[in-house]
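Proteins fold reproducibly. Look at a sample protein:
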Amino acid sequence: MPTPKGDLWKYYYPGAKQNSSHYRAYCLGCINVHRPASAGSSVDPMEVDSDSNDQSLGLTEEWFNDALKNVKSVLGVKDSMIAHLIGKLSGKVAAAKDAATDGDDESDSGAPLKKRKRMRAVEKSFKQSELKVFKGIDIPFSDAQSKIIKTQFLRATISANLPFRWVINAEVVKLFLMFRSAATTVMPDRFALSGRLLNEESKRIADNVNAILKGRYVLLSTDGWKDNHKKSLTGVDACLDGKSHLIDVIESSGKPKDGESMCQAFFGMIDKAEAEYGCIVVGLCCDNDGGSHKGRDLMVERRPWLFGPPCCGHQGQLILVDYFKVNEDGAQTAEDTTDVLGWIVSHERVRAIFDGVQIDKTGAARSYLVANITRWTTHSIAFHRLMRLKAPLGAEKNKKAVKKMTDTASRFCDLLDDPAFWKNLQMVSEDIEPICYMTNINQSDHTRADQVLLGFAGVYLHFKRHSKPHISKGMTARIEKRWAALDQPMFVFCLILNPYERLERFGPRAGADAFTLSMALVELYRRVKSRPPPGILSEEEEIELQNNKKQKEAQVSKSFLQYLASTGPFASWVKTRKNFESVNGNNPILVWEQYLTNPDLYELADFAILLLGMVINQGGNERDFSDFKIKKTRLRNRLDTKKVGEMSKIGADIRASHKAEAGLFEEREKRQNHSDKRVKDLLAVPRYADALESDDEANSEAQPRQVLVKSKAGWQKVFLQWVMDAREMDGNSDDEEDAPVTPANDDWLPLPLAKLFGEDAPNPAHHRTRRPTFNREQLLMELLAAEHSDEAPDDGELSGSGDDFEE
């Protein structure tokens, strides 16, 4: 007995067999398009059953046979028949789409379907006959609606990180048809989604970024990344107003990385950014490895109006490496701590014992944190958590229970019971906490150069006061070396031009008098403003240009002296500072923007905004690469560089719009790794909490893969990698002659941190015998005795008796 045909054959005419099992299927709706007017009025193909004797379509007439030759058939299987019914073919009616999409309504096949008065009818799906779904409203879309919907399809695709082919998935199509039966008319295919729509949206965002950057001072940051195909990509970000904008993605596979090549690459990035976005590039920030380090030095040498700082977000990691080099006992303690934490986390029975004691003592069990090599600050957090669990871990009940397990457990229990271990861990935790705090601050998109300088000063003073002399001496020397490699005038004058700081942070040994500072500032101003004008100038124009520069330099010097003395236009700032800060916060750029309207102060205010607006880290590039890794996965590795960059720009714009619209973005609670009291005591130079409060990194949806360190061998491997990275970042900075030469006034800068922020050291007490006090009679007797002695007088001693002595 042949298998009965399915309900889909109500809408198809069976043709000849294509193979031994399947017939060719001809859509009755398509056939009805070819029905001539002479054949009578057409009927709804949804009301016709091709297997019945209903001849309303004229299945036996001559025009019908001709139509079969012109109509394209499909294979008589369910998938092909459904795809044809819901596709964009002429002649199909909404009922056929709904029936194919929503499934069989299980009505009598012999009776015609009754039309419902309601616009939405309940039917049963032929895939899941027990699931009741609703038909979509049959209302067509306008052209404006269609354009908006197609653009939204692209934004939804990128925001949810979906492949472009998701829009042609049959189940997705059916889902949208449930909402609206005309959905397929506005759903773009994957080629339109990844082509025209992507390009149009990318151009719109590029125009928005152009409007933001045009005519503004920006600092570029660049870094490299490799995808799953080992293709090297270089990202270029423009940092402005505490936000990084991805402006270019360059494929750099196989390109040379020597100093000269990197210098030319930097020039290309700068020139392209200024040409396309109309911005004024004031500097470029990148890694401090050999090629990049040399390339930056050449860039600053050939274009002295540019700044070339290394990424200050890496300085904390480098100082952390320095600490473990100087403190060998601390390095061993860090290895032991990591080993203990990994042992607890990896053994459920051990963890259950320790958790039980925690619950008995505190009522709750705290988790055991381990270091993550992708987040340098987690080492401090993990060590501090272990310190807080010292009492539960060292309980007698734990030792008796755990020692029954293995010799390894006994070794760790002995380590947890060793007071020397906890003493060393306490010291290591307290030493690396300010370093990690500085690292957190320097990675923020809102961190200014003056905050970086205060971070260096705070860590320096922490180790200056260290109780162990060898650690104090070794760390202060290494920190001084890293400070000496930076462009000191940029950092120092950024701090001085912060109206909330000025000269208050400098120590008595800095020698920062007003005239010295004024000359050094003019030197830095002259360097930044040495950018040549476009085109060739005549002799008269050149003379006029030089005179104009001299006038502006004199104006800057005079304004700066008034700023230091709090006179003239700056006199009111001393009185209104606290009130202004309470209302507007402590953003120094906002203060200087108020002086731009004063023509006498414009040059100084503009220069201060330039310095204070620079963010010298690669945080934006790191977030871009995390986003690249999410978009260009192992399964989507064929995405080209241009398309990855466009998708990342659109994704960043979507996240920004979600933050701007209320209710679309859930603000992540900021981590509180340090108590308020501890923050005040962490660094000798405070004001770091403000930078952390504006940190946007925690809101990034792109999180790197978590790589945890759970053993001593793992810690040693990670530390070795740190050392290698530090050497690579340092490049050739070990040689003093390779340190960048700062062009500022040599009479004052460069200066070590010890002089800038150090205090006057007390004179050491000389332990020598105090000379006895002689009265007049004793002195006369001594002279008389010397006169009658046979000893030769000492050098410089006068001969004579006591009678010659006069008071």
Notes: The longest helix spans residues 539-565. The mean pLDDT is 76.
